[in-house]
């Protein structure tokens, strides 16, 4: 018997007894005897559904016996995608801010926080804004907000500086959904249910599983859809399964998918030229042995082998120069080439020894680039929708840390700290969330799609020379929060646009009416092909060597100068492709005015993947969207 999520779409209008309705549905499947004990929880604040303990046969009956059910799927476990970063993306502490900033509430869905940390000191804050409908649970003398400025924060001297949030006056509401063994789908959906009803403005969601193939069997996609219906943008992590292609997760078009990028800081271990973060002082030379012969590598890494005083790890996959790990003993992580040189030294020396020096902080002149761990596209559900959307700093990030947890997260390590240095798309996602909240503080009435568009079209372009997977690695580019406040134009979209998109994806009228709670209609007139979804990027998959003739329809809304004229330019059109924009000039006479255009791609591609970009320019704003065409077998 297993826990299953029974998702029923929008909640009914008016008051309704969720538990009574859900128990009744269970009774119809296996009688009244087990119904109440089978029901685990009900979702009722922002959408409709429940979790129940069912056998495989009962799950199939539940799926087919009720016209009210959208989907039934197992509640599985997901994993978290786990100072200098804001300055690196051009977002200094002294940037312009608004008084509305303190009314912004960010809902954080992850493993919880250590409320006593200085990062969550609420000194100087008044009560939460009136719109807040949630409560604080489990702690005394702690309010759900974030002060966000901590001077002289570091991990044992590394990353020393001021730890701050992107929107330091904003409040945070933390929904703990993860424990030591992972994050249950049932808890994830409950957190979305509560966060939406509590009145958060932005949701930050830094976890995921292998990509789903159905938007409505994915708890993040379901929760983010209902958040979008309520005017809330969900910022999600793209995943840590790179550099493998088709590994990106959280790919729903109504949420923001954030890949990780590096900042201009990295940690090196001198002499051995490896990467790790060592807070140990050097104290002599020690014998050097080959771990493959010693059969104790796992014990050494965990710090439990009594003879180990340090370890050198050789990475045989990809040069590990883009992220650092913390180990419970002095360690250095090397490339395969350096590892071969050490192996030769060991085999050719009668008494090989080594000394691992304390790590040093150095400038990474190649930054920003996408680290190898960050998941790559293309999108496995909707192939012609580019994911990830953009990148944000996610490598070597100084973050608040529980002082009762070892900094290496390994047994045998007794070192604790108030802050830790972490890498992962779970570090990138909060940066994008903060940038979205910053935009929201200037434009409180903007839709989730408008905020997302502003972030994407103002992102700093990244180099395909540093990132072979190009847009599949970095999407539109690296966030630039200051520019995103004034994007000039936005590609806006609302619920009906996404419903039309889902019609085009093959979802039935009956399913979509349950999801939306209204009288949605799929017809030839409303079936929206993915190429016509008003998205801030353009993607096209084609059979290998097939000729192309594809038209994309888009509209842009003027949020810049009331009277302005934008001219379209296609930058970097690849060999063999002809890309035209009609009309190529858009003249606006008022703020909020919306104008349409089409982008047509014709020809053949001579490589597996090619890209270009469309830029709308009025002399003050450059509104940039990536264009990608790739071959499929």
TrEMBL record:
Top-level lineage group: Eukaryota
Gene3D superfamilies cross-referenced by the UniProt entry: 2.60.40.2310, 3.50.30.30, Peptidase S8 propeptide/proteinase inhibitor I9, Peptidase S8/S53 domain
Protein name: Cucumisin
Family: Belongs to the peptidase S8 family.
Gene symbol of the encoding locus: CUCM1_31
Pfam families for this protein: fn3_6 (PF17766), Inhibitor_I9 (PF05922), Peptidase_S8 (PF00082)
Molecular-function annotations in GO: serine-type endopeptidase activity
Keyword Hydrolase: yes
Keyword line: Hydrolase, Protease, Serine protease, Signal
Residue ranges annotated for the Peptidase S8/S53 domain, each copy included: 103-477
InterPro entries: Peptidase_S8/S53_dom, Peptidase_S8/S53_dom_sf, Peptidase_S8_Ser-AS, Peptidase_S8_subtilisin-rel, Peptidases_S8_3, S8pro/Inhibitor_I9, S8pro/Inhibitor_I9_sf, SBT
UniProt domain Subtilisin-like protease fibronectin type-III: residue ranges: 532-629
A GO biological-process term: proteolysis
PANTHER family noted in UniProt: PROPROTEIN CONVERTASE SUBTILISIN/KEXIN
Limits of the Inhibitor I9 domain: 4-81
